[in-house]
Specification:
single chain; about 350 residues; mainly alpha; name from scop; 3 domains; 4-stranded mixed β-sheet
Length: about 350
Amino acid sequence: MADSGGGQEKTEKATSKKRKDARMKEGNVLQSKDIYTAASLFFIFFAMYILGRYMLQSLRDSMTDRLNFVSTEDTVNVEFLLTLLREGIITVVMIVGPIAAVAILTAIVTGAVQTKGLFTMQPLRPKFSKLNPITGMKRLFSLQSLVNIIKGIIVVGVIAVLVYNQIRSNIIDYQQMLDMELGQSILYIARASFTIIVLIFMIFIFVAAADYLWQWYQYEKKLKMSKQEVKDEYKQIEGDPQIKSKIKQKQREVSQRRMMESVPTSDVVVRNPTHFAVALTYDRENTFVAPKVVAKGKDALALKIIDIAEKNDVFVAENRPLARELYDTVEIGKEIPPTLYNAIAVILTDMYQAKGITMDN
């Protein structure tokens, strides 16, 4: 199976994004129509088994009432016929209504289970591709259509054989119904029909299981992706490298701008002498807090930090090993480690002396 887009074979399993898009955007989910059929058959006839006596009794009472009504009526007119029709419809609704409700409820629940609660109108939207006669002919003679035809022939054939064998094996018992009362005959037919229905249901269970496996195979095959599609999807998720690079550059620019805004309010800048520069602040009123790095830079950025510091009368001290160690080990916004307390204390003392600041000020 070739990929019409890039000529690549679709050999890769669908990604989670591909599956999610197929489900939410296209309404494409794994489901089998034969499971609907098997579930409906089971619950409908189970309901008939439970409600059989009620249905037969209701039918018998209705027929008795209709016969009594007809026997007591002398004239037949429109009103008489309408009454018969209305009461007949009510009887049919009362008998068939519960079974119809079970069928509808079974279809809804089975659909919800198979689609995992998905409700979308996407499959019902008109597609002009469906009006294409060539596409229609392809669907008509597709592998799926061939499988459905073969499956239908096999199911009908197996059911016909089972029904024939069941009737043939009980033909003598059926002849005895001529000597039975009407109620007994109906009950016997109902029991015999129930046996046939159980056999048919077992067939549909097997067919539904086989069809589900086939639909799963077709579903996975349809969702398969080429290696290029997987790469393209990964790029979409992760983002274009050029765009990501520009975003990171913008973030660095914003971070540097905020960092530079902290330099004029810093207390000292340690330099080396042009390659590295680190700006620190120290709160003399809170001796429990160590000096903190508020800005640092290398090469051109270091020269910019030094330039801003000098223009804003920030004390600049040259200490090559200390500047390098501060740059490598302390992140912006973090306090200096205890191992550097003494070295920074010396620089702060020089700053206080240069500016005429005493610890009491």
